[in-house]
Design goal:
This protein is α+β, with helices and mostly antiparallel strands. The chain is 31% helix and 26% strand. Helix 1 (22-35) packs parallel to helix 2 (48-59) and helix 5 packs parallel to helix 6. The chain binds uridine-diphosphate-N-acetylglucosamine.
Length: 419
Amino acid sequence: MSAFIINGGRRISGSVKVQGSKNSVLPILAATYLVGGKSVIHNCPKLSDTNSTVKILQALGCVVTRKGNTIIVDSTDAGGYEIPESLMREMRSSVIFLGAIIGRMKKAVISAPGGCEIGLRPIDLHLYAVKRLGVKVDEEFGRLNCSVPVRLKGKKITFSFPSVGATENAILTAVTATGSTTIVNAAREPEIIDLCDYLNKCGADISGAGESIITINGKETLIACEHSVIADRIASATYLLAGAVTGGDVSLENADPIHLNAIIPLLEEAGCNVNIRCKTVRLKAPQRPLRIDKIVTQPYPGFPTDAQAPFTTLAAVAKGTSVIVENIFESRFKHVPELLRMGAKIKTEGRVAVVDGVERLYGADVVSPDLRGGAALVLAGLCAMGQTTVRNTLYIDRGYDDIENTLCSLNADIKRKVI
Ligand code: UD1
């Protein structure tokens, strides 16, 4: 078990190269199995979730090599169709392999992902999508035995909610199906576009990615290619916030400012000056941030749920009262009790948090409740007076590539300690 020890109160300043996107690399690596052959994926962040994805690929029979931030997946001779339960449990988004495996093998055995730290994560929309395309799903003792009795055939899929994972599974299943598939109310996240860009480079025929209606004309064969993963918009937001909560001055290199369209206006509302030049985003913060009237999480292009917890820390030290509404996951305020231990004034009721900004947070011994909640606590530690211990770094390592050294390069005093 390791923890971050943070001596707070230093101005976070300097320039940082943004890591590749966690939510892109996972489905793209899964897609390499569907495509077959040898794919070369650049800009892969070093995350425990990336490692878990690699382990699944290896369990399926792929030869995976890593050179720096490039992962090469050779699935030429692979033929697995079952994901061991232990690997399914390691990373709940392993369900994304369902479409990739079924598309290639016409059968798949996975387990239903269990409960989760941020609320229930049902997979009914994933199953609805694959069933529409001709997959038969038999559930037995928590294992899902999936088969294709006749063939995968394109159909109209209408989602009741634009689930990111279900949209990705629908795309992966449809891409080699016979005929045309239309996904209505598809998720519009940039990571969906990135997945479709990779697949289209491999010869798929997908149009409309990034819009609510995606059309896929099935192709019998795909050919592996080289692809570079987009920048991580949540890591981008987190490092900008590190500047915002410490009166700092942070520049992101090779960010994608368009993907930050819902985030930058809120940083400006908090009194930060945000300057965009090509792929560089520079934030200069006031000594103390101002309150943000309302932070409401929505599917993309709305404000992302993954940035909600880090923004709670900003609201916690802002001048005035901010209101946060979490619309995507039902228990995503688990960082709040930990922030209260540091002196924050926050009341939650269901999906709403009312945050009365305090002048100062105080260092404390806190426990990371989940990935983004952990990032919120690291941010709190950076601006708190005194020393903060953030336990359970394993959650933070799921989504941030070397967060402690990145923050150290920005003038933070943060160390990882085995405890
Ligand atoms: C993805 C992201 C995650 C982000 C989330 C929402 C990845 C690897 N993870 O997760 O970081 O927080 O999008 O932006 O890309 N739902 C159902 N039934 C389903 C599927 C989802 O009810 O079959 C519900 C979920 O419980 C949740 C909401 O839909 O309340 C959003 O989930 P979804 O968009 O599917 O998120 P993920 O793909 O799991």
